[in-house]
Specification:
This protein is an alpha/beta fold. The protein contains 17 helices and twelve strands. The chain has two domains: about 230 residues, Rossmann fold, CATH 3.40.50.2000; about 150 residues, Rossmann fold (3-Layer(aba) Sandwich).
């Protein structure tokens, strides 16, 4: 079977699908992954065919957006560029489309035009529920009725964001116009399966979800069997006690220009020293950098979290879905520093299950000099209070027993 996976966004939005694709390929299928060109090497390293998508989220940012209207305008432009790319990638051949949350609202129409099945594979629990508000709407519960209403409203916002892109791609493919409400109603009536790459050990499946909406466990970025950490990092790890990892992934992109990166790095270094721990700082999109002299702190680029995290004392991160899952998989405590979007949701879940401290505000760390005290206190608790590691280790055992890829394979091979 020819399987095409489409994913767009940051590293965390794309990388988990490389591991999923590799496992599907091992099961005997021909697998391609469509993403923007910056991920070509990542995709090919997993043994998958790479197909390019035209929209690069880093290019689309152009500095911090001024207000919600500007943010929506940029997102809609990104979507309109993305639609033709998804159609072109599928036109190269596919028997089934596997769609990320970013590409699904477009890819469903491509699948309809081609007469092939599609399967939504989001990395967040995005269906309305009374159990919690939409994952991008903060962590304050509105009550069961309010949470469900907010969830439905969130879907309508997504519909509006994708409206022009959907109209364009349907016209391009020769499909008649259709309303977002009609598409959603049709999918619900058909009880289309949606498999979320989320561990139920972290987010229990909502009891009010319809059949077919499942949390199947995480998909992990592909790591080659012979992959190793860079020698300089191996030497650093061997030179002392396990360090604390600090990384904010794609967050704070563009921060190099306004001084945010320098303030953030200075506060991180100060916090690590105040907590009396060694540290590994991942530069990420913001280009963070520790002191040049070392002194118990090492700055690294992209390294496999699967290899590094088990050897750390704690992980300080932006609470993106992928990094949150990777820290839990490693059984190490977390110090979440959420920035935006779904990150406050994951930060709250880490604290709720006892595997992470209470969140540390990113704004203070990035905008205020000398604001390292709260981060230092959280790091010290995560490293020295045994309960955090014990809870993280317990969840890691549950995560290890899950087989998210196996669940995807069952649906794909049954005709999606």
């Amino acid at each position: 079977m020819k399987i095409l996976i489409t994913a767009a966004g940051s590293y965390g939005d794309v990388a988990p699908y490389t591991g999923l694709g590799a496992r599907l390929r091992e099961a005997g299928h021909s697998v391609a992954l469509a993403a923007d060109a910056s991920y070509a090497q990542l995709v090919r390293a997993a043994g998958l065919e790479f197909r390019p998508l035209p929209a690069d989220p880093r290019r689309e940012q152009g500095g911090a957006p001024r207000g919600q209207r500007e943010l929506m305008r940029r997102a809609a432009a990104f979507v309109r560029e993305l639609g033709p790319g998804v159609a072109d990638a599928a036109a190269q051949g596919a028997d089934v489309l596997l769609l990320s949350a970013t590409t699904a609202p477009l890819g469903r129409h491509v699948a309809e035009a081609m007469g092939i099945p599609s399967l939504d594979l989001p990395l967040q629990p995005n269906a309305p529920t009374g159990d919690f508000p939409p994952v991008v709407a903060g962590t304050r519960s509105l009550g069961r009725r309010g949470n469900r209403a907010a969830g439905r409203f969130s879907l309508r916002v997504v519909d509006r964001l994708y409206a022009d892109g959907v109209r364009d791609v349907r016209a391009r493919l020769g499909l008649p116009p259709v309303s977002a409400r009609a598409v959603r109603r049709r999918r619900a009536q058909n009880a289309r399966p949606v498999l979320h790459g989320v561990s139920p050990a972290l987010v229990p499946r909502p009891a009010d979800w319809r059949p077919g909406l499942e949390l199947v466990g995480n998909w992990w970025p592909y790591t080659a069997p012979d992959a190793v950490l860079p020698p300089v990092l191996e030497d650093f790890l061997a030179a002392g006690p396990p360090p604390v990892f600090v990384g904010f992934g794609s967050m704070a992109a563009g921060a190099r220009d306004d001084g945010t990166s320098a303030r953030l790095a200075a506060n991180v270094v100060a916090a690590l020293r105040r907590a009396e721990v060694r540290g590994v700082i991942q530069s990420g999109w913001a280009g963070l950098a520790g002191p040049e002299s070392g002194d118990g702190i090492l700055t690294v680029g992209e390294v496999p979290h699967a290899l590094l995290f088990p050897r750390t004392a704690a992980v300080v991160h932006h609470a993106g879905a992928g990094t949150t899952a990777a820290a839990l998989r490693a059984g190490v405590p977390a110090v979440p520093v959420p920035v935006a979007a779904d990150q406050p949701f994951w930060a709250a879940r880490l604290a709720a299950v006892g595997a992470g401290t209470d969140p540390v505000p990113f704004r203070a760390l990035s905008q205020e000099e000398g604001s390292a005290g709260r981060l230092a206190d959280a790091v010290a608790r995560a490293v020295r209070e045994p309960s955090y590691r014990e809870r993280a280790a317990a969840i890691a055992r549950r995560v290890a027993a899950e087989d998210g890829v196996g669940e995807v394979l069952k649906v794909v091979e049954s005709g999606a």
